[in-house]
Specification:
The structure is a single chain. This protein is an alpha+beta fold and 281 residues long. The chain has two domains: 72-241; 244-280, no CATH class. It contains ten helices and four strands. The chain has helices at residues 21-86, 94-97, 99-107, 110-128, 130-133, 137-165, 169-185, 194-199, 201-210, 213-241, and strands spanning 244-246, 249-254, 259-266, 275-280. The protein has a four-stranded antiparallel beta sheet with strand order 1-2-3-4, with no helix packed on it. A hairpin with an 8-residue loop joins strand 3 and strand 4 (275-280). Helix 1 (21-86) packs antiparallel against helix 3 (99-107) and helix 3 (99-107) packs across helix 10.
Length: 281
């Protein structure tokens, strides 16, 4: 319903053609006030709608980027696992296969850890069973869904353990062994690192002495340590480039001498601009 603010009322009282003061007071003024309020309300609602739309769009873009990053890290680990498992000549990729997944897991909260596990399981089992989807979809889909669910539970368990005890490679390796043993008992996989145990005499000897699960412990432990080392190296590089402000002085890293120097600004009374003076701590 559209209300026009431009209108004309012609009532004759006596000899004049203008409006009677009573009509102006009781009819015209309330109507103009109502129109002004309606316009202000519409403007405010329009501004609020635009603001809400911008916030929703920003949230969707941000959420989409987070999901894309999770899929990138988890998908990379799934691809490396598949290559190491399907092509025995590349068995050594098993030691770095889970490194991208675990590297992202170091900073992930519980929900992102669950999402990482979901993407890892979905990508791995979808590619592994892609040849069985068309001829036997009712046999392949339960395996894909079951494996994805268990991978999601593994990711969530790692996220919960990280929140309570921090990122511990030994805890991650132990959780992986429990998770892999469950997948083997359900018949979803025969083992993730069979090619590594068969291709390496050292790993084959370990498997003969302590069982095949010791191979998973060694490989996941190596990948966890690698991910933790990368995270630590990135933090150290970032700390060297960071400028930490402490009060009025500033600590600046000097990459050439591997020391920190503190910058002071001496401002004499009645002088010009401050002259910097450097003192090494």
């Amino acid at each position: 319903m559209c209300i026009h603010s431009t209108f004309e009322i012609r009532l004759g009282f006596g000899k004049g053609t203008g409006l009677h003061p009573t009509v102006i007071r009781n009819v015209v003024q309330p109507l103009t006030d109502y129109i002004s309020r309606a316009k202000r309300v519409r403007v405010r609602r329009g501004v609020r709608a635009v603001d809400v739309g911008r916030r929703v769009l920003s949230g969707l873009v941000k959420g989409g980027s987070v999901w894309a990053e999770s899929f990138l890290f988890a998908g990379t680990s799934a691809l490396l696992l598949l290559v190491a498992g399907l092509f025995p000549a590349y068995w050594y990729l098993s030691f770095i296969a889970l490194a991208p997944f675990l590297f992202r897991m170091i900073r992930a909260d519980v929900m992102e850890a669950l999402r990482l596990g979901f993407f890892l399981g979905l990508a791995y089992f979808s590619v592994l069973l892609v040849d069985a989807l068309l001829p036997a979809p009712f046999a392949a889909l339960p395996k894909i869904l079951g494996g994805t669910l268990l991978f999601s539970l593994f990711g969530m368990s790692v996220g919960l353990a990280r929140r309570k005890w921090g990122f511990n490679p030994f805890i991650v390796a132990l959780l992986w062994v429990v998770f892999e043993l469950g997948l083997i008992k359900l018949g979803l996989v025969h083992g993730f690192f069979e090619s590594a145990s068969l291709s390496s005499p050292f790993l084959h000897g370990l498997a003969a002495l302590f069982g095949f699960l010791i191979i998973s412990v060694v490989i996941v432990l190596a990948a966890s340590i690698l991910a933790l080392a990368l995270e630590t190296a990135i933090k150290l590089v970032g700390a060297r480039r960071r400028i930490v402000t402490a009060g009025r002085s500033t600590w600046v890293s000097d990459p050439t001498s591997y020391i920190y120097r503190q910058k002071f600004y001496l401002v004499p009374d009645g002088r010009g601009p401050p002259a910097p003076s450097l003192f090494f701590a």
